[in-house]
Design goal:
The protein has about 400 residues and is mainly beta. Helix content is about 5%, strand content about 45%. The chain contains three helices and 36 strands. The longest helix is centred in the last third of the chain and has 9 residues.
Length: about 400
């Protein structure tokens, strides 16, 4: 005769299968017809789930009384899940010290779950998780004062806070203790003046904030220290009353993707944020003065020795100043080019000095323009001075070229 096997298959519903050599198909079972205690679930290899449903109907793993539920919780070894279902009546934790180590409190899927801590209610734990439900302290003493490195995890929209007024913060780090809080998409505090967590003198709140966590206004208080490591998407309100607060961003720009809206504004187009920031921060400047004179001639041309290649937008703010001496001229024409003296490379504007009589003198001209580099090659800039009759000459250091990529 074949071996009989009873198994639980489900995350969302329970199924029982009676197999004879593996040939009998599973039979779905309505959860409401199957009553299993947490101990039964553990025996079947499932996680122990306790449902706290005040005002509901007790049975199986559903409890309407906190004391009765906790009597069963503490005898289960290892991780435990407690669903808070306050649809029929408010869920309260009564006075007493409750061991909730390795417990995960979860919210009811279709209802915002709140767990209210009455006067004298205390939690002890090494590791405690609150997931998608609210912990609210209605006691004049703190609910949790864990031993050093006791860790509270606040996940998926869960909130830890206290009622405004003469009530105590939910969590207290006492002298010599480092209380750890890890939050991913959680909320600490409810704003206003109601602090949710406090550190006594010599105590430390060590907080590791993952994505989209909020530390509300005045959520952190006390004479101790709050040391925070936070994801860039998390928000720590600037108004906190804890004596020492340090907040260090954990994000590294080298791990954050970046896609430019206009790839042509970059050279090369970055794919990571750190590369984009480095491009923006890096100066790309051509700045020089002529190191040798140019003798008298009807036309003189100075071409920058240094060059400029596109590293960012390719937009270049260009300024060329030149001071020449002239002899017997009737006018001077100042022209600016990119790379070579040719019509297509001439850059506006150009300057012109005219006289009604030929004369000898010093003339100075400055031309400014915003150039657009045509490619990623290295480019030089040119200043040309043309004399209308007579000659011009350039001494050492009398022509300055400055080009700065924007």
């Amino acid at each position: 005769m074949g071996r009989k096997l009873l198994s639980v298959l489900t995350p969302d519903s329970l199924s029982l299968s009676l197999s004879d050599g593996g040939n009998v198909p599973s039979q779905p079972i309505d959860e409401s017809t199957l009553v299993l205690s947490p101990g039964d679930l553990v025996a079947l290899g499932a996680r122990p789930v306790f449902v706290f449903r005040p005002g509901g109907v007790a049975g199986g793993n559903v409890y309407t009384d906190w004391l009765t539920m906790m009597a069963d919780v503490v005898v289960q070894q290892g991780p435990k899940w407690i669903e808070i279902d306050g649809r029929f009546a408010a869920a309260h934790v009564p006075a007493g010290t409750w061991n909730v180590d390795q417990c995960t409190f979860v919210g009811q899927q279709t209802f915002v779950s709140n767990l209210i801590f009455d006067e004298g209610a205390k939690f002890t734990y090494v590791l405690l998780t609150v997931d998608a439900c609210n912990f609210t302290n209605n006691s004049t003493t703190s609910v949790a004062s864990p031993a050093s490195l006791g860790t509270l995890r606040v996940l998926n929209g869960a909130k830890v806070s206290r009622t405004a007024g003469a009530f105590a913060p939910w969590l207290r780090a006492t002298a010599g203790v480092t209380a750890v809080v890890v939050s991913i998409a959680g909320v600490i505090g409810s704003g206003g003046t109601a602090d949710a967590m406090t550190a006594d003198a010599g105590g430390t709140l060590f907080m590791d904030l993952g994505v989209i966590t909020l530390i509300a206004q005045n959520a952190l208080s006390g004479l101790g220290t709050a040391t925070i490591l936070s994801d860039a998407s998390s928000v720590v309100n600037g108004t906190q009353t804890v004596s020492v607060l340090t907040n260090t961003l954990q994000d590294n720009a080298s791990r954050v993707l970046y896609g430019p809206a206009v790839a042509g504004n970059w050279q090369p187009a970055p794919t990571l944020t750190n590369a984009a920031l480095d491009q923006l921060a890096a100066p790309n400047v051509l700045a020089e003065v002529n190191a040798a004179p140019i003798g008298a001639a009807g036309t003189i041309t100075y071409t920058s020795v240094a060059t400029l290649a596109k590293k960012k937008s390719g937009k270049v703010r260009l300024s060329i100043s030149i001071s020449v001496t002239s002899s017997g001229i009737a006018g001077l024409d100042f022209r600016m080019y990119r790379d070579t003296v040719s019509g297509p490379n001439q850059l506006p504007p150009h300057g012109f000095e005219s006289n009604t009589v030929a004369l000898s003198a010093r003339f100075t001209c400055t031309l400014d323009w915003v150039d657009t580099l045509p490619d990623a090659a290295a480019h030089a800039y040119v200043m040309q001075v043309i004399a209308d009759a007579g000659t011009v000459a350039l001494a050492n250091g009398d022509c300055a070229v400055v080009a700065n990529e924007l």
